[in-house]
């Protein structure tokens, strides 16, 4: 579960990213954050992945209070939360398979684990037949599915 209690993020006295937000996201829920520019969407996501710290309030993910998380624990946190950004952040010189495998490589996964997991998640998102293509060789929707596959390789928590 993801829980925000009384969370605020004030950049300056006149620049408020979020103000006193309370939110619960239950295990297994998929959440889309939408809204006009400047309404705090990016601030919220940055707080959830510990790229920013809240000015006030507490943030818990899976019962773990990440409000004052240490730098060394951030990679572990980020494997617990699957986030897909609007601009995808695909690596243009890597194939579909390499883009998805990269997420596991940088976290130290074994080659056997990568060989086992990557084809499974690409099959789940319907890209089994496009393994050797580069991002510019697939449609925008397929690029989005690559990013979804990449976010699933760490198996973000879906149970209590």
Structural notes for this entry:
- This protein is of the alpha+beta class and 160 residues long.
- The chain folds into 2 domains: 2-80, P-loop containing nucleotide triphosphate hydrolases (Rossmann fold), CATH 3.40.50; 96-152.
- Helices cover 32% and strands 19% of the residues.
- The protein has 5 helices and 4 strands, in the order ββαββαααα.
- The protein has helices at 41-48, 74-80, 96-105, 111-124, 140-152, and strands spanning 2-12, 15-25, 56-61, 64-65.
- The chain has a 4-stranded antiparallel beta sheet, covered by helices on one side.
- The protein is globular and about 50 Å long.
- The relative contact order is 0.14.
Helix content: 25-40%
Name of the CATH homologous superfamily of the largest domain: P-loop containing nucleotide triphosphate hydrolases
| CATH architectural group of the largest domain | 3-Layer(aba) Sandwich
Overall geometry comes to globular
**SSE order, as H and E?**
EEHEEHHHH
Query: Biggest sheet: strands side by side, in what order?
Result: 2-1-3-4
The major beta sheet can be summarized as: 4 strands, antiparallel
CATH topology of the largest domain: Rossmann fold
User: What's the structural domain tally?
Assistant: 2
- Quantity of strands, as a count: 4
SS-derived structural category:
alpha+beta
Strand % is 15-25%
What's the total helix number? 5
Radius of gyration: 17 Å
Round the mean pLDDT to the nearest integer and report it. Answer: 87
Oligomeric category: single chain
**First-to-last CA distance:** 7 Å
- Under CATH at level 1, the class of the largest domain stands as Alpha Beta
Low-confidence stretches are none
């Amino acid at each position: 579960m993801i829980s925000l209690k009384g969370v605020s993020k004030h950049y300056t006295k006149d620049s408020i990213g979020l103000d006193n937000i309370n939110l619960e996201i239950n295990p297994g829920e998929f959440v889309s954050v939408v809204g006009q520019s400047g309404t705090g969407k990016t601030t919220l996501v940055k707080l959830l992945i510990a790229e920013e710290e809240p000015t006030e309030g507490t943030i818990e993910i899976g019962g773990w209070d990440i409000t004052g998380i240490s730098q060394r624990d951030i990679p572990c946190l980020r494997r617990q939360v699957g986030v897909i950004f609007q601009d995808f952040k695909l690596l243009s010189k890597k194939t579909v398979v390499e883009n998805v495998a990269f997420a596991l490589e940088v976290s130290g996964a074994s080659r056997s684990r990568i060989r086992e997991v990557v084809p499974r998640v690409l099959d789940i998102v319907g890209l089994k037949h496009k393994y050797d293509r580069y991002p510019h060789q697939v449609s925008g929707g397929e690029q989005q599915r690559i990013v979804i596959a990449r976010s699933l390789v760490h198996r973000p928590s879906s149970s209590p």
